[in-house]
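Shift notes (night). Ran Tripartite tricarboxylate transporter substrate-binding protein while the centrifuge was going.
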Amino acid sequence: MKSLLASIAIATAAFALPHAASAQTYPDRSITIVVPFSAGGPTDTVTRLVAEAMSKDLGQQIIVENVGGAGGTLGAKQVADAEPDGYKLLLYHIGMATTATLYRNLPFKTLDAFEYVGLVTDVPMTILARKDMEAADFAGLVEYAKANADKVTVANAGIGAASHLCGMLFMSAIGTPLVTVPYKGTGPAMTDLLGGQVDIMCDQTTNTTKHIQAGTVKAYAVTTPARLDVLPDVPTTREAGIDGMEFGIWHGLYAPKGTPAEVTERLSKALQVALKDPNVVARFAELGTAPSSEADATPAALKAKLESEIARWKPVIEAAGQYAD
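Came back to this:
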């Protein structure tokens, strides 16, 4: 019996050693961060800045892979199904919370499919219109939209995209359904807004600031409690007389369920270092946002945020009745 127990102990130790070593030496090769949207969009921009800074701290290259489609759920599913070893991660925005209600047949259980690394940033939203929009200010835009509800078009980058969520919240806040025009990505939606083919769009400052500063679109409001330094002439929605529209598009970093705690903690520490990188801080400021604090760039903070945001957006989505299969 003693001999049998000894054999089992040796076999168990031999099996455990590689796993213990992998956690202790992580990472020993390149890491991939999946962005569940097309290249060049606001989430892609955030990810590439953070990935470059994290790679310095981790000592390994971080590859950014764009896996777009189905409002971000295809890329999320790919990571949910990946080996839980810390070498394939997901950087997803607020859509991680909203898809739980938006999609009737979501291919993963949001709260059960991932481990949490930390919050990355909370990007403000801007309410824009075509350059030649008749309304002079936000109150005028609301008045115009209500008077022409059957023909005013609101562009978005697809079901579940940040622009789609903001558009729904805008229509909810003014109590008027408008004509929604979904696109396959932020790029084509913005192109048509710039060309005057659509009337209104609500999107992240990381995508809109350069257009606002260039004067190629008309900016009406930002969704922050205070005005942004990068857009000082654009009023807040509350200043403009609309309550209930103060929100941002937060981004979080995730790993597949079952990833060792030591690995997620190491990634969280690298994220905290990256978010203090001078280049990241400066570039985020240029884009109208700021890195998450060290306290927020943690597994516990991201988990709490996701749970609270699922609860917040569920009634908004259900009231709008805009679902995806």
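The chain has two domains: 29-122+248-320, 124-222. Residues 124-222 form a domain with the D-Maltodextrin-Binding Protein; domain 2 fold (CATH 3.40.190.10).
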